[in-house]
Amino acid sequence: MSEQQPPKSPTSRRAFLKAGLTAGGAAAFAPSALAGALGGGDPANQPPNIPEWTRSLGDGVAVRAYGKPSKHEAHVIRRDVEWLTASRESSVSFTPIHELDGIITPNGLGFERHHSGIAEVDPADYRLILHGLVDKPLIFTLDDLKRLPRVNRAHFCECAANSGMEWRGAQLNGCQYTHGMVHCVMYTGVTLKTLLGEAGVKPNAKWLLLEGGDSAAMTRSLPLQKALDDVLIAYRMNGEMLYPEHGYPARAVIPGWEANMWVKWLRRIEVGDQPWHHREETSKYTDLLENGKARRFTFVMDAKSIITSPSPQAPVNHKSGLTVLSGIAWSGRGKIARVDVSLDGGRNWRTARIDGPVWDKALTRFYYEFDWDGRELLLQSRAMDETGYVQPGKAELRKIRGVNSIYHNNGIQTWYLHKNGEIENVEIS
Amino acid sequence: MSRFHNVAAGGLVASLLVAVGAGIGLAAPKPQAGHAAQPPAVVKKIGIGREATAEEIAGWNISVRPDGQGLPPGKGTVKEGEPLYVERCAACHGEFGESAGRWPILSGGAGTLASHDPVKSIGSYWPYASTVIDYIRRAMPFGAAQTLTNDELYAITAYVLYLNDVIKDENFELSDRNFATIKLPNQPNFIDDDRETTEKAFWRKDPCMKNCAAGEPKIIGRARTIDVTPEAGKGPKVE
Question: What global pTM score does this model have?
Fold first, then answer.
């Protein structure tokens, strides 16, 4: 029997699925192995037997002084696509959104985008300079930032290039890769408005420049209006100090706007009367249209959604019956108002159930439970936000934006559910 | 951009003036629905953070704008830039800016922007030459950022602009004095975000729910056939 049992630590859910089906088929001829074979795992640890973790003591307290997920979840990690970039220092890794639920991303799993690697900043040497068109240029230490009044805000952070590899058609088979440049954490920090108030902004000020302390000294121009509206200078994520890959010890949080503007390792804010037109807002993060013109300063992230499970990396592990479809939706213009789901490639839609908090410019979790009859389906989701914006289909989007844009691809994704439970990234007519 | 300019020129600055003029250092931030109450409004400046010295600011203020603001004093010719470029830049960007492997391309691509295979180089795409000198100054050479002298910076920038036919004379000396005269050809082809007008159709009162398209959907593209997805189970090692 042993060679027919599923692997104890499957390397992927697809491997698990295949192994499970094999074992299930064999079970009909071996009733004694039914329990273990049908649900997977090792029958020696299942009723009526006493499992090994019940018969012995486990690790004591503080052995795991900083906790980690179970060793059985070791496959839930950020991954990269090696052929995308020339080096890991200037590259991107993707959030395993297919393995997560709710709306908060764990601190170790949020996608990374670095331009010259992770800056390892000593908090004692951290300084933030605020200067330019101000009454009094200021320099803040990290302790200074922590002494100022704090706010807590959960916001999604999405790279403008999320789904960028899909402009010309279905390319990557997994929502981690197609939609994983997004995360959502609870930030603690000080409002930029507070800092600007301390320095005093001159009447002719219109734009700010945010600059990082990494080896790219990453910069973006930010309209003063947005800075005074809801921008934070954050030093904590989900209660912990920011992780180095997310800008420790302080970063900008620009709610609803493209992640490139959320400058990490923030070292300098300059106040000016015009934008700087730096590399990340000219050569990059501008959207080339079909006629050769390019849109610039396309800051807002349009409403978008994705079914995270089932999805290519998270297949359906049963042959039919009640099936939970789960996904995330978000909008840079405000709250998610509604999410619709289609099982037939967009011919007919039903409204999904939203569960958990619906916050401004934050991920929103939706579910749709249905009785799967085991037939092939074409799964789609469609987000709507409180401004009335409806997530467009890919064809509609391409009609206006062409296929050369790289950035801001928020078109509706299609997953092809096969009879055997596998899911495939497809495009349909 | 114009939208922000307009707003800034109107109500925004006025309200700022009132706030600053009245000595209000901190107004209550906009609450986020579903979150707890906001921090207490502070009536006057808190006074945290000390005044930054001119020397501190000068050490970190490396930003250059299209109008020339922020240009460091210095000069360098195309000729002087060539050996520097070959030594410090060519390994990634190619001897003529054509790029090695997946590193960013710097030159070529004129006339390709409206094609199926656009090449977005400094000469073909970038709107401002100031972006070139600003970026080299802050981030290049990759892995040895902010190590170039100002004269090296101007020389390399001059050479890169020469590779793009923006500067045509190899004896040309680029400096903080003449930099603002350098124009890139694609500058007029950038437009401000116009999604709220050109994509107005995406704001829909009642999106279709039943029989939204005729006929059976047909699969016209599959990620599997392209086969570029990293293999399941493979990925960075985690301890």
Answer: 0.88
